[in-house]
# Entry
Amino acid sequence: MIWRKIPIIFSILIACMLSLVPAALANSFIWPVNGEVITPFSQDEHRGIDISARIGEPVMAAQDGVIHWIGKTPAGEPYVSIDHPGGITTTYLPVQASVSKGQTIKAGETVGTLSSEPDKSSAVPHLHFGLFDTATRDDKNYINPLDFLIGKNAISEKKPVL
Ligand SMILES: [Zn+2]
# Structure
């Protein structure tokens, strides 16, 4: 009988809807700085993208959210992380924060300025921008930020959003 299958169908529908959440956020994040991607994302070696920027340049929140953390990496680089509705967290480094933990922020508002400590992936001044599934905060499942950023200087590595 079909009614016996309804809970199963319903569960499948819910599962499908949940899996669509990140897809719904695709191409909705703004570029935190207006530069070129100088180092692409690599799941094993480089868990973010490096965007060229000037030291002291303002760094913007990529999407509305709440400042989750302001701290330093083990290498001593200052960073900011933001939790966004929909289950995505973004990280920005090296950034001298001008916001405080727990503060709400809108897309495009300044989180701080690019600090002078370059990260170890390139000698050129740049922002390292990372993005992960908030639910994986402990072991951080990083995702390619280019799948979430609005068009513009998206480079060839960008996968089509199906
Ligand atoms: Zn980097």
Notes: The first helix runs from residue 2 to 19. The domain at 2-147 is CATH 2.70.70.10 (Glucose Permease (Domain IIA)). The CA atoms of residues 66 and 160 lie 29 Å apart. The radius of gyration is 17 Å.
